[in-house]
């Protein structure tokens, strides 16, 4: 069957998405278009914090549940937004994060990391690690339980979360309770002739190979892929996955990232990491932006997994 025949009817609006041309010249226009679509309901705006570490000023957005015990410590989710590394801000998920914080009675801290190509690898990842360190260094002020820190991201944010999990494991400074990776962007080879995953059913709608290559090129900058940081750049290339935190991974069956995500989940399992994997039939990249039956199921799965990860330990 052809990809459009596999597409679930509730995602037919995705048929005409993904035709935009991505380049250095068109990126400012694409950023302006995407950033102008941010919508925030009253009361859902982030609590803005600015921190400065090693001369770098970093913006964070905090989302707090409204009614909590004044003495109970809150679990915390460090959230990393999507946008192909080249665009986006925490506000793109304002309503989602505010609702999630309330439902889980959890503090959510979203990182406004520096974007590429202006700030290539490893700078976006360094910003995420800086935010993680800030959480642990300010746990008393924030009222958080550092035994219950989950890292989470969508798309490129999922890729950065996966890299952050590896970096945190290797440095051994900040323990991570779990990672939640929603259609994560993990493999710089995807969409190229070098990719080990060649699937004609994926990457036809919503997110295509050409913009994927553009975004990875922007992240790469002048990095030569020739040292032991390659797994931090492209988590699919990380050889040793042992000791990573329990993981939840979800992806649509028509997503360009399908095979890299499934393979990463399998490799985590082989490395002895507890892993939960969901593949949603007939769903393209960013399917959960469209309300419907499959999106509702995906949201339920994410919330259930987070509740389990954030429970008493």
Protein described:
This protein is α/β, with parallel strands linked by helices and about 325 residues long. The chain contains 10 helices and 8 strands. The chain has helices at about 5, 25-35, 95-105, 125-135, 140, 155-170, 210-220, 230-235, 260-270, 295-310; strands at about 45-55, 55-65, 75-80, 105-110, 145-155, 180, 245-250, 275-280. Strands 1-2-4-3-5-6-7-8 form an 8-stranded mixed β-sheet, sandwiched between helices. The longest helix is centred in the last third of the chain and has 18 residues, at about 295-310. The protein is globular, with a radius of gyration of 18 Å.
Please summarize what this structure is:
This protein has 313 residues and is α/β, with parallel strands linked by helices. It is built from ten helices and eight strands. It has an eight-stranded mixed beta sheet with strand order 1-2-4-3-5-6-7-8, sandwiched between helices.
Can you lay out the helices and strands and say which pair or pack?
Elements: H1 3-6, H2 27-35, E1 47-53, E2 56-63, E3 74-80, H3 94-104, E4 107-112, H4 123-137, H5 139-142, E5 144-154, H6 156-171, E6 178-182, H7 209-220, H8 230-233, E7 247-252, H9 258-270, E8 275-280, H10 293-310
Parallel strand pairs: 3-4, 3-5, 5-6, 6-7, 7-8
Antiparallel strand pairs: 1-2, 2-4
């Amino acid at each position: 069957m052809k990809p459009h025949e596999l597409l679930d009817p509730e995602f037919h609006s995705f048929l005409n998405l993904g035709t935009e041309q991505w380049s250095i010249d068109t990126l400012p226009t694409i950023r302006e278009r995407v950033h102008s679509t941010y919508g925030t309901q009253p009361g859902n705006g982030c609590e803005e914090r600015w921190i400065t570490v090693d001369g770098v000023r970093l913006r964070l957005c905090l989302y707090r549940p409204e009614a909590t015990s004044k003495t109970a410590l809150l679990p915390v989710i460090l959230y990393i937004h999507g946008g192909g590394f080249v665009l986006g801000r925490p506000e793109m998920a304002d309503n989602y994060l505010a609702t999630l914080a309330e439902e889980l009675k959890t503090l959510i801290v979203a990182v406004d990391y520096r974007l590429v190509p202006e700030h290539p690898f490893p700078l976006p990842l360094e910003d995420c690690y800086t935010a993680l360190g800030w959480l642990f260094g300010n746990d008393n002020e924030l009222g958080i339980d550092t035994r219950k820190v989950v890292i989470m991201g969508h798309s490129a944010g999922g890729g950065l979360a996966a890299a952050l999990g590896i970096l945190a494991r290797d440095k051994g400074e900040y323990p991570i309770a779990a990672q939640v990776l929603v259609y994560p962007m993990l493999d710089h080879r995807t969409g190229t002739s070098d990719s080990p995953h060649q699937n004609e059913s994926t990457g036809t709608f919503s997110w295509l190979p050409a913009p994927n290559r553009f975004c990875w090129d922007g992240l790469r900058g002048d990095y030569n892929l020739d040292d032991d940081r390659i797994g931090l750049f492209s988590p699919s290339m990380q050889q040793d996955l042992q000791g990573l935190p329990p993981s939840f991974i979800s992806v649509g069956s028509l997503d360009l990232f399908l095979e890299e995500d499934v393979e990463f989940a399998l490799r985590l399992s082989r490395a002895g990491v507890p892993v939960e994997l969901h593949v949603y039939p007939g769903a393209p990249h960013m399917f959960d932006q469209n309300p419907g039956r499959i999106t509702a199921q995906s949201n339920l799965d994410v919330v259930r997994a987070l509740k389990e990860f954030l429970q008493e330990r």
